[in-house]
Design goal:
about 200 residues; alpha+beta; single chain; globular
């Protein structure tokens, strides 16, 4: 009985030490891992949306809290002014959640670009929400404050052929981005000015 107790205590001590070491490693590497995910998964999309900016929006990013949820806000500088932001929202596609980056000009509330970052859509059908440039281009120049729907639902966006649900998911994510933007615009402008100053 005594041997089993010693073995049990040894296992508990080893488990606690191992857990502590793993937690410490995670804390030390968290920011670096997050940056690597941004750089390789979302980075190409963000840089495509912010094409022509004179800074690196992945480095010049802000953390902002919206309804107890922290999100990244990527700041773009054009013609010497940090007047553009991009952030990710989510919509419901056919295969699950769609991650969508929306870029917005802070001066006129116009969308500068929309792109899908992550999805589980059917290859060659719903996945075209990420790969078809004509679909994403429809959002460019529209106000982020407008409601977005596909044309069959009474809106202004042409759905991808055979991918109506994916198209609705992207529209839903852009609508969500608009709601976040409306709530946080004063805070966003203040934080961008602080970063620039």
């Amino acid at each position: 009985m005594r041997e089993m107790l010693k073995l049990f205590i040894a296992v508990v001590v080893f488990s606690c030490l191992s857990g502590g070491v793993l937690a410490a490693i995670q804390n030390v590497t968290r920011e670096r891992i997050e940056y690597q995910q941004l750089k390789f998964v979302k980075g190409p999309t963000i840089k495509n949306i912010m094409e022509g900016c004179s800074n690196d929006p992945l480095i010049d990013r802000l953390k902002i809290v919206d309804e107890a949820k922290e999100m990244n806000l990527f700041v773009g500088e054009f013609e010497g002014k940090r007047n553009t932001v991009a952030f990710e929202t989510f919509g419901k596609g056919f295969g699950g959640e769609l991650g969508v980056i929306v870029g917005v000009n802070l001066e006129n509330d116009e969308i500068i670009g929309v792109a899908v970052t992550t999805h589980s859509e059917t290859p060659g059908v719903g996945s075209r929400a990420k790969t078809d440039p004509d679909f994403a281009t429809q959002f460019k120049g529209l106000s982020i404050l407008d409601p977005f729907k596909i044309k069959t639902d009474g809106g202004q966006i042409d759905a991808l052929s055979g991918a109506t649900i994916s198209s609705r998911g992207v529209c839903g994510a852009v609508v969500e981005a608009g709601e976040i933007y409306k709530r946080l615009k004063p805070t966003i402008i203040e934080k961008v000015k602080e970063k620039q100053g």
